[in-house]
Amino acid sequence: PFPNAIRLVEVAPRDGLQNEPEPIDTATKLELIDRLGAAGIRYIEAASFVSPKWVPQMADHRDVMAGLTRREGVTYSALTPNLKGLEAALECGVEEVAVFGAASETFSHKNINCSIAESLERFAPVLERAKDAGVRVRGYVSCVLGCPYEGEIPPAKVADVSKALYEMGCYEVSLGDTIGTGTPLKAKRMLEAVAKDIPIDKLAAHFHDTYGQALANLYAVLEEGIAVIDSSVAGLGGCPYAKGASGNVASEDVIYMLNGMGIESGIDLDKLAETGQWITLAIGRPNRSKVGVAMAAK
Ligand code: HMG
Ligand code: MG
Pyruvate carboxyltransferase domain spans which residues (predicted)? Predict the structure, then answer.
């Protein structure tokens, strides 16, 4: 059965911008975050406390977190791969963070410079420290429907890593189709494997649209009861350690589909589409939301 309502996790300020080659000023990021909040989005991944050598575009994480105009009822989160990142994020008053692992060994090494097992060892103290500070931790698993280096990833591997993150204390595990190679029935099978160990309401879908399958994949997992969707306005984004990966599924496209299905999101599609037009113009990128482009042409 489809859910009645979903929570949208807007990742454009982080996943959407992290791979942009040209510097984007902090003010533009802050305006993007503010516009997303004004469109009714209640959860925004605003920054990433990673090494500026690895991901230069996120180097202004402190200024972004400190510069936010916080809206009532909106959660502003940040990625924190290790204790160093978490401590910096806590200093900036972050209320929620995310750790990110992978279901592929090679991707884990390329992305965070350690094995899957080592990554879990690093996350454990991050979760402990966050708990002490009263900060909730979300967990990501990358490469759930394929890896740019290893190809096919068995659903059992995805289930193992997801379970480890959940048991460690992540309140929610977001399943990342990092390179967008998944297809609907494959997405269902993967989810079934993961949902054997984790309640479906503790899982989120984080699908990239590289092969144009993201909406179809989302439809498939919504049917299984997934009610948290990660997306990026204008379909911005890509992962620096997954060559050729394009953006997340576009938030506008997700909301248009959900509206058509009678699934509540609390998001104003007009304002969201305007935000997509604005940011793509501001950073000189094409708008990769079909809905956004269609609405702008009206
Ligand atoms: P490392 O080199 O193994 O770490 O990197 P290290 O502890 O040896 O430190 C090396 C240097 O980094 C030191 O600086 C540290 O201070 C610094 P140096 O002495 O050389 O000047 N450092 C840091 N600086 C700032 N913040 C930190 C931090 N930690 C260490 N937190 C590390 C390990 C994880 C830091 C590195 O590999 C890294 O930053 N990786 C970033 C990867 C990344 O951001 N990828 C994109 C996000 S994941 C994604 O997009 C997928 C997702 O969307 C889901 C999906 O689609 O599948 C989430
Ligand atoms: Mg991603």
Answer: 6-273
pLDDT band of residue 241 (cuts 50, 70, 90) is confident
Q: How confident is the model at residue 246 (pLDDT cuts 50, 70, 90)?
A: confident
- Residues 98, 140 contacting (CB under 8 angstroms): yes
Q: Left if phi > 0, otherwise alpha if psi is -120 to 50, otherwise beta: which for 94? A: beta
Structure tokens of 4? 């009645």
Is 289 in a helix, a strand, or coil? coil
Give pTM, 2 decimals: 0.97
CB of 176 sitting under 6 A from ligand 1: yes
Active site residue 239: yes
CA nearest to 275, candidates 36, 25, 43: 36
Q: What is the pLDDT of residues 93-125, one digit of tens each?
A: 999 999 999 999 999 999 999 999 999 999 999
* Distance (Å) from CA 81 to ligand 1 centroid: 6
Which listed ligand is nearest to 177 at the C-alpha? 1
pLDDT greater than 80 at residue 193: yes
Ligand 1 contact, 48 CB (< 6 A): yes
Q: What is the interface pTM, i.e. ipTM, of the complex?
A: 0.98
Contact 105, 115 (CB under 8 A): yes
Supply the residue whose CA is at minimum distance from atom 36 of ligand 1: 112
